[in-house]
Each structure stands twice: as C-alpha cells, then as structure tokens.
Amino acid sequence: MNRRSFVTTMATAAVAAGAASGRAMASVESGNRVPLARVLPKGLRPGSTVGIVCPASAASTGDIADFVALCREWGVRVKLGKNVSRRNGYLSAPDQDRASEFMEFIEDPEVDAVICARGGYGVMRILPMLDFEAIRQAGKIIMGFSDITALLIAAHQLSGVVTFHGPVASSTFDSFTVQSLQGVILPENAPPLTTFTNSRLTVIGEGKAQGRLTGGNLALVVSTLGTKFEIDTADSILFLEEVNEEPFRVDRMLTQLWLAGKLQAAKAVALGNFRDCEARGTSISGPSLSLQQVFEQRLASLGVPVVYGLPFGHVKSKLTLPLGVNAELDATARTFRVLEQAVV
C-alpha cells in the first residue's frame, strides 16, 4: 500500500485510520488484552535530521529561528514542512494538508524526529486522518505541548511509541529548557536522568508513587474524553498544566476528569504552574476560589501524591517529559524523577 496517498480525502483517511486505531485502542481499553508493546524512538545524534511541522496553528520561519540555530549547534539538520509560514485563519493550513505534512515526515526515511512548530488549535481535527500503524513502524520522536497534547497522547496510546511533552520549535530555548531537552532526546551527550526538586513546590497530597508518565494541557486532555483518543490514566503519574483559564474553569475541567474516573485511576498528579490562571477579580457569581483552593478541593481527597508548580508546558523554562516511561513523584520531598531512558 502506498501510504502517501492515504490522505487523499478526509473521509477515506478517517475510515483507514479508524480501523487501525480501533484495534490499538481496544488493546488499551480492555483489561483482558495486552497493551501495545512500548517503542522507544531513536534519539538525536550529530547527522540526524529534524522535521518541523505545523499540525495546528501557524508559525513562520522567524518564529522557529532559535530552534533551527540550536539544531545546528548539535550538528542536526533541519527540514521544514510545507505548511511552515502558511496561514488558514487560526490554522496553519487545511486539515488534509496538515495531516499529509505530518505523515510525510513520519514516513520520510531521512527524517529522524518530528517537532511541532506551534500549538494553538487544530490537532484534534486531524487525528482521524493519521496512520498510527505507520507511526509505530517509524518509531520517531514526536514533540510539542499545548494543543499538541492531543497528538502526543493519541500517538503514544495507539502506536505504542514514546512521545515527548516538550518545547515546540517556536519556544524560547533558555539553558534550563535546553539542558532538559538534551537529557531526554540526545542520548550520547545526556546528563543523568531528569530529576527536579524545589522546596517551593506546593504539596496538595503527601506521599511517593511511581507510574508511567502521561498528560499534558488540561483543556486538551478533557476535550478528548469520550472519544477513541481519550487519555488512559491507569497506574500513571498524570501531569497537567494550563494557561489563561479562570479558577472556575480549571475546577470544571478537573471535575470532568474526576467524573470520568481519570483522576482516581492515577497513582499521582503532577501539576504545572498554571500560568495566568488565578482569578481576575470576581468570578461568575461573586468572589473566586484561589487556584490552590481548587486543587485542594478537587485533588486532595484522592489520597495520592499531588504537587503544584512544576515547570512544564506554558512557561519559559520547561522540562521535557516523555509519555510512556516510568517516573516517580515524591510529594513529601518535593521531588520529581524520570526513572527510564526515553530513547535508544
């Protein structure tokens, strides 16, 4: 089969992807079946090639210039997708074009990693058009955050490939971000496995737990509930972050996860900084709860370790977190550790 032709129409793509992803998701959802074997992607090395794609909103070549320069420092080549610098309203390009661009780089033997240029909005629209069996066979790094959360979770759960919640190509690459990124995706020059500790982390629930990492942007995690792409939180360290949402909206999204049983299934919850999510005056019907009060009311009763304030997602200095590898959250000691290498 010529996979490059599978996105000729949205309907054809949805049928093809639905058949492949349905089988994979059944293995995740059914307690009587064995989940997909985990696939560790090949790490970046000098001479590798990174493909930059726009599966959601638009980004220009100027937006990604810092990341391109960083790749050159590493001796890594860069290949730009056909949708970089395009714009179609709040999307980079029509759905079919964005799906095609992504799959072309997945199937391109010269491309070793696929890095998303920007989040924004649009990934959910192309999920039914992706070939998850091809993603599994390629076994490549896929990285981004924000709207890219939906892609990372779907690709990991329906292909078995470890994916990476980390900077997009238009992010700011300060020393903290670069050090974390190198430690996760550049195996030959990697420092010890990621460990982050900070006495200023807010503890919502005491204790220590280990589990596989999964999560991302809260709104995107909630938006896929009830679909074949919804998050599996069983036995996980669930990490969640958000930006520019009022406390009552954060409350509503966490409550939806609780009603769906997703919070109760996790072994621990690691919360990001939730930048600009405190109340901006009065709430919908009067004074607002603080964000910490929301977390305490929605998460403390879970009886698992919960911390608030980890640096990932919508912050300048961010950790790169691999979905599908084991990690440990010690809330009492305010320490988070990745326990396994995420690439080979």
Automatic annotation (TrEMBL):
InterPro entries linked: Carboxypeptidase_A_C_sf, Class_I_gatase-like, LdcA_N, Peptidase_S66_N, Peptidase_S66C, S66_fam, TAT_signal
Location of the LD-carboxypeptidase C-terminal domain: 210-329
GO function terms (MF aspect): carboxypeptidase activity; serine-type peptidase activity
Domain LD-carboxypeptidase N-terminal: 50-166
One biological process term in Gene Ontology: proteolysis
SUPFAM superfamilies tied to this protein: Class I glutamine amidotransferase-like, LD-carboxypeptidase A C-terminal domain-like
Pfam family, one: Peptidase_S66
Keywords associated with the record: Carboxypeptidase, Hydrolase, Protease, Serine protease
Entry similarity comment: Belongs to the peptidase S66 family.
Family matches, as PANTHER family: MURAMOYLTETRAPEPTIDE CARBOXYPEPTIDASE, MUREIN TETRAPEPTIDE CARBOXYPEPTIDASE
Name this protein carries in UniProt: Unannotated protein
